[in-house]
Specification:
Strands 2, 3, 4, 5, 8, 9, 10, 11 and 12 form a 9-stranded mixed sheet that branches. The protein has a 3-stranded mixed sheet with strand order 1-6-7. By secondary structure, the chain is an alpha/beta fold. About 30% of the residues lie in helices and about 20% in strands.
Length: about 325
């Protein structure tokens, strides 16, 4: 696995350049960035690409193929990643669990998206998650570490980097218009990325009912994330309004139906062989809710995201490809 160390100065310069361009005063000590979490206009519906594999008998179809098919339906990765882009891929790899247990994003989906970003001309593809269990065990047992190492070797390409989250790279930001969160430390590589690809796994969550793309963004949060449980619905909308996903790709090849988010074993894992991609994280989450068998508007953070204008949860308004 690579490290961010040699890129720290470049990231810092890019971060301050963005702030300066936005009109913030940048001095020797840097600046406290401010992100606007206030919707300025009603969002327009974005098409959602949904694919289903043909696996039978409890087997999972080729997840990498499903990921490519879904993104291609939206115009290929080049619609989201331009040559020279610094790309962040944010999967869920927060748990010390194997792919078969459904707690983490399937490693083949992560590797396929990284390869597509490279093919689109990305200057760098960074993959990370702030894990809940021990990071080294999560990266290894999830299969993501081996998948990315294999990809880099196969392509002989050092532009793809899987790294552990480094605490010194969190920036405390002010969130204008936040309903519950008005400031929070967020991970700098996500803040400066030209494209952020959000790659959640669809699964049960004991507090929110389900977890998909919006909740996956907790992996860029520093500090005591348990605090947001006091108002999880508004908090998730605040974070997702402050840091927007360029593309959300929902892994529903395996669905953990109970015991989430950590799970354990395969007893509660259902093979779905489905995957979806959409620019709108709220639409992507609403699709995930329907696959899970629940009304999106009955999921608190999805409903609030729709009401606050983050995205569209009414799938009747969405073109399904």
């Amino acid at each position: 696995m690579g490290k961010y160390d040699k890129h720290t100065d470049r990231e810092r310069r890019a971060f301050l350049k963005k702030l300066s361009a936005a009109g913030f005063a940048v001095g020797l000590g840097g600046a406290l960035p401010l992100f606007d979490a206030t919707a300025t206009a009603a969002p327009s519906p974005k098409p959602l690409a949904a694919v289903k594999g043909s696996g039978t008998g409890g087997t999972v179809s080729d997840p990498a193929k499903l990921a490519r098919e879904a993104v291609d339906k939206l115009g290929s990765m080049s619609a989201f990643v331009k040559p020279g882009f610094n790309v962040v891929i944010k999967p869920n790899i927060g748990w010390d669990r194997t792919p078969e247990e459904g707690a983490n994003t399937h490693p083949a989906v992560v590797a396929a998206l990284a390869q597509m970003a490279l093919e689109a001309g990305a200057a760098r593809v960074q993959i990370f998650d702030r894990t809940c269990n021990d990071s080294r065990r999560c990266y290894k047992r999830s299969g993501v570490e081996d998948a990315i190492i294999a990809l880099a070797r196969e392509l002989d390409d050092d532009r793809v980097v899987l790294s552990f989250v480094d605490d010194i790279r969190f920036e405390t930001v002010e969130i204008k218009g936040g309903k519950f969160l008005t400031r929070w430390p967020l991970y700098r590589p996500a803040l400066v990325a030209d494209a952020l690809i959000n790659v959640p796994v669809l699964k049960h969550h004991g507090l929110t009912g389900i977890t998909v793309g919006m909740k996956n963004m907790m992996g860029i949060m520093g500090g005591n994330r348990g605090r947001i449980h006091r108002d999880i619905d508004e908090s998730l909308v605040d974070i997702n309004m402050a840091v927007r996903s360029t593309l959300t790709v929902v892994d529903a090849t395996r669905v953990l139906t109970s015991g989430g988010p950590q799970g354990g074993g395969t007893k509660n894992v259902r093979i779905e062989n489905r995957l979806a991609a959409c620019e709108d994280v709220v639409t992507a989450d609403a699709w995930g809710a329907t696959i899970f068998g629940v009304d999106p508007m009955k999921v608190g953070h999805i409903r609030r995201a729709h009401e606050r204008g983050l995205g569209i949860a009414d799938l009747d308004r969405v073109q399904i490809l």
